[in-house]
Design brief:
It is a single chain. The chain is an alpha/beta fold. The protein has two domains: 171 residues, 3-Layer(aba) Sandwich (Rossmann fold); 135 residues, Glucose-6-phosphate isomerase like protein, domain 1 (Rossmann fold, 3-Layer(aba) Sandwich), CATH 3.40.50. Helix content is 49%, strand content 15%. The chain is built from 13 helices and nine strands. The strands form two sheets. A five-stranded parallel β-sheet has the order 2-1-3-4-5, with helices on both faces. It has a four-stranded parallel β-sheet with strand order 7-6-8-9. The longest helix is centred in the C-terminal third of the chain and has 22 residues.
Length: 341
Amino acid sequence: MIDSLGMFAAAAGLPEQLAAAAASARGLEGLPAHDDIENVVVLGLGGSGIAGDVVTVIAGPFMPVPVVVHKGYGIPNFISDKSLVFAISFSGDTEETLEAASEAALAGGRLVCISHGGELQELAGEWSVPHLRIADGIPMPRAGIGAVSAPPLVVLEEVGLFPGASAWIDAAVIQLARRRDQLAADDNPAAALARRIGRTMPIIYGGGGIGQVAALRWKAQFNENAKVPAFANVIPELCHNEVCGWGQNGDITRQTMHLVNLRHEFEHPQVARRFDLVTEAVDEVVADVDTVVAEGEGPLAQLLDLMLFGDLVSLHRAAQEGLDPGPVPILDDIKAALATG
């Protein structure tokens, strides 16, 4: 097996990574008062930006103010001194996030910066705003999902916008350790699913907010770890468009596409019914259909449980093809080309 950056070990260390990141975020100084915040914005892309999606689906439904995730250049026009703005960049040098964070600071946003260093850490010092340093030893941004997701939740708890975050994080740590141990066996469910998917293209369907974020994570991990095309969508939205696209080219899709349904306890009852109807509709026009069911206590535990399962499926898929899951040369090439103007 080729794994030059230790991606398997990083995935296996997710429970400890999550716990350590949560602990490091407690007691942060310089945070705004609860009553001074009217909205929360999370800036970031890729393996860092998904932290904003986690905040949105886990904390968002329980917060008294809206949460917006911004993945790109510039900033939403409403950012002001009433905005709590998380700027997250694993390297600290993501150009889109640096531009957005700079504009947010000029607009008066109350920033909290999260990075392993880089220019974002330097800017946080210049702006005199809190900075949380991502721990050493995480080989790639996508391997740091716990390191970038826990701090915003803890900060929101300490500001008083999301009480109870720590308890949910503790429950997630317990479940991740349990799932990690289950998937450590030689013939484990993640490796078996990777073999069933084989050289087909995975189509990942999730239900509601939790399922959508988990599906997006699976897609991205297949792209980066296994270096294959993958696609994701969410129920109920896909029941209003994408499901119409199955069938016309069934002779092709039956050979090339494998559907994976991600399920969890927090689905709306009608979403659960839609899964059954969609699966019945597409069963004959895809290579196969598999279902992964989340485990754990609470929404965060179930979301991260699905993510860890998917991370390992994509890593096993890479290993089965003799691919090194860590390096992503095409992304490096694009960054280098942009840097040269």
